[in-house]
Design goal:
The chain is α+β, with helices and mostly antiparallel strands and about 625 residues long. It has 21 helices and 21 strands.
Length: about 625
């Protein structure tokens, strides 16, 4: 009965509810993959499970239905099918293959549609070695894929310099060679091929070369170098010095190639490294393949979220996908956090220090760089998309009902209670709108009272907005903590605006964000774009307010010094200040200079007033 009640929470039709309940009751407790179908019998979601019954049932419980995206998915489920497998890893691999095949609407979308190059060793007598982007299942060996075509061609160039291989497409069967169907070509004459087509190189000799090439493509440079050093020693003992010189050149070539690789540590043999970075819409996973202490491959993928998938879900899916794609069989995988899915004969390591920790940090830097460059490119191509992403993130971080496309921020300034002023700065679409900035002179508050000053300017600002029927902001930011925020709320209450416009306070000391009615602040990530926008508009308000306050204070200084001189008006004082730029320079001026600016009589008054200081 409990299952029926839970499904009824979704307000599904009775017939549909009973159908799904019957399927859920019959689900086994085995590992497997489940598929959700809509009314058109189209797969809309594929998932894996260690226990099919528990996992599928969880989609229909009350707690899960609080997730809006999951609720939408569940409402569209018309049928459920499943496939039982032996292990959770089998379920993960099958899930990955089904997602790639059907691309269900509510599954993570792997945004990586490139076709990567491979090095192919053809399945034939005297195999050819070449690059390809098409894999044919004919028994040939493929090595890669290479995320960089340049890296692949570097490996191929190394192979061609080390070994003499055929590049013709003749069918070199034993009967054809013995029948002398072929003749040596230019490649033989210029030293690029040993002419197995006419029997000048045996199949065993050629296959030994292919074995060495396979080691190089796997990144096992040391194995090939060790083999060549053995041949070098043998040639020297046999006094075959010309042959020894050729082998030595090959060893030097291998050393040169290896020195250009990113060497991590000789102590680290074969490991895979994975790191992840996520945001609101995507996950980014970087993969590094380390063989014999050197990074031989690196690749980053993006996964588009559909159902608020966790970092562990995204990383687990990526590990399965990338290890399959890059044909990795490493027994050790370095990860940033614990992975629950078991991979047979594989150990997951979360390093705390040392070379492995540095490897993980390198992978993390790679994924951060990838995301930063991707966002930078998006901003160049579509600035509006960049703005919308920031506003959506602010809406989520600050629990707003709508995107804060119009933000207004307020700050007070005074000097020991004198010359109190306030400033309002405005951001529209996450950018400063300087034409909308406003200054306020505090009119009703006596003395240094920031709380009362904030209450006054908020009331004055939004009383005018209402009277003139201007558009209200989606967010008000108060520079200050609980006290200033409470004062601002008093004014919003008087105007009947409380609850109709979002308002927060930001305290300078630790950048705490305060919300109305909540004494406990939140702390946003120091790197978050939301905090950076709030800090920027707050700093703008502070700068704008300080400038106004300084100007007002200077005018106050002008009045208290120059206008105290009997016979000197504000107009005359302004004329002097405009010419000499400061009161200090007026004091230091000669009488003739003063007379030239304001005339004989007034010039003599100012000169006589300050001459005792000269």
């Amino acid at each position: 009965m409990r299952d029926v009640f839970v499904l009824s929470l979704l307000n599904l039709p009775m017939e549909k509810s009973e159908h799904l309940n019957n399927i859920i009751r019959a689900l086994p407790d085995n590992p497997g993959v489940y598929q959700y179908f809509d009314n058109d019998e189209k797969i809309i979601y594929v998932g894996k499970a260690k226990n099919l019954k528990k996992r599928v049932s969880s989609y229909f419980n009350k707690e899960q239905q609080e997730n809006g995206k999951t609720q939408i998915l569940v409402r569209k489920i018309a049928d459920i099918k499943y496939i039982i497998v032996d292990t959770e890893l089998d379920a993960l691999l099958l899930e990955n293959n089904l997602i790639k095949k059907y691309q269900p609407r509510y599954n993570v979308l792997l945004k990586d549609d490139k076709t990567y190059p491979w090095i192919c060793i053809k399945n034939e007598r005297f195999p050819r070695v070449f690059s390809t982007r098409i894999i044919i299942k004919d028994g040939s060996s493929y090595f890669g894929p290479y995320a960089s075509g340049k890296l692949m061609h570097t490996v191929l160039d190394l192979i061609r310099q080390l070994f003499k291989l055929r590049n013709c497409n003749f069918n070199l069967t034993e009967s054809n060679i013995q029948a002398h169907k072929f003749k040596v070509c230019l490649e033989y004459h210029i030293g690029n091929c040993k002419a197995p087509c006419v029997g000048k190189e045996t199949e065993d000799e050629y296959n030994e070369t292919i074995a060495n090439i396979k080691e190089i493509t796997k990144g096992n440079i040391n194995t090939v170098a060790k083999h060549l050093k053995g041949l070098l020693h043998e040639s020297v003992e046999n006094m075959e010095f010309e042959k020894a010189q050729l082998i030595k050149e090959k060893i030097d070539l291998l050393d040169s190639y290896q020195s250009k690789s990113t060497v991590v540590s000789p102590a680290i043999t074969n490991v895979d490294v994975f790191s992840i970075l996520t945001d609101e819409k995507s996950g980014y996973v970087n993969f590094l393949k380390v063989v014999n202490g050197s990074i031989i491959q690196g690749h980053t993928i993006e996964l588009k979220k559909k159902l608020d998938e966790s970092d562990e879900e995204l990383l687990t899916l990526s590990i399965a996908e990338l290890r399959e794609r890059f044909s990795s069989d490493s027994k050790e995988i370095i990860v940033p956090f614990k992975i629950e899915t078991e991979f047979p004969n594989v150990e997951f390591v979360i390093p705390q220090r040392g070379d492995k920790k540095q490897l993980l940090e390198l992978s993390q830097r790679n994924v951060e760089y990838y995301r930063r460059e991707k966002i930078k490119q998006e901003n160049l191509v579509d600035p509006e998309r960049h703005t919308k992403r920031i506003l959506e993130q602010m809406k989520k971080d600050l629990h707003l009902k709508e995107e804060p496309r119009h933000i207004e921020c307020f700050d007070n300034s005074n000097f020991q209670g004198a010359y109190p002023v306030a400033a309002m700065t405005v951001f529209k679409d996450a950018k400063p709108s300087k034409k909308d900035y406003r200054h306020f002179n505090i009119k009703t508050v006596e003395g240094p009272d920031d709380f009362a000053s904030m209450e006054e300017i908020i009331f004055r600002r939004y009383k005018r907005v209402l009277e003139e029927k201007q558009s209200m902001p989606q967010l008000i930011v108060i520079d200050g903590g609980k006290g200033q925020l409470s004062s601002a709320l008093e004014s919003l209450d008087k105007l009947g605006l409380r609850g109709k416009v979002a308002i927060i306070g930001i305290a300078k000391r630790l950048e705490e964000i305060y919300f109305p009615g909540d004494s406990i602040p939140i702390y946003l990530d120091k790197r978050s774009e939301t905090l950076k926008i709030i800090q920027q508009i707050r700093d703008e308000a502070h700068r704008f307010g300080i400038t106004h306050h300084r100007n007002k204070r200077d005018k106050g200084t002008l009045k208290t010094e120059l206008t105290e001189i009997k016979g000197i008006s504000d107009t005359t004082a302004n004329k002097l200040l405009s010419h000499f730029k400061s009161v200090k320079k007026i004091k230091e001026a000669k009488e003739a200079e003063l007379v030239e600016v304001i005339g004989n009589a007034k010039g003599k008054l100012v000169w006589d007033y300050y001459k005792t200081d000269k």
